[in-house]
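Worked example 2:
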Amino acid sequence: MRYISNRAFSLVEILVTVAILSTAIIFVFRSFATSLYCAKLSQDITFVGLLAENKLWDIEQKQKASRRPLERESGEDEIDGKKIKWSYTIAKLEGYNLLVEAAFNFLWEERLKEKEYALNLLTYLSCKQ
């Protein structure tokens, strides 16, 4: 006669296994959500960079038409369904009569919180007199 073992997992072993797997799954989902948030934030910063490039081009065109740069301007644009508030300040550089510096500030809402992202461009515009 053969002896057949009816050995099974105890309830404590099953509970420990479920707890370990649940913890691992929670960390995987949390890291997935964080990576999605970071990808969205990266996309928003890319859109703001493109908007800054567009505004810089507008400043150059206005400066060429009027022969003097604007000092400051602000406004709001909508990109990809998101309203982005922007402003820029043009400052003359001391010691350089023909160059100005542009400083941009952008605001947009993300996850019900308003976060401010500032771009300080060290791009110089020529002021032909």
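The CA atoms of residues 74 and 87 lie 4 Å apart. The mean pLDDT is 81.
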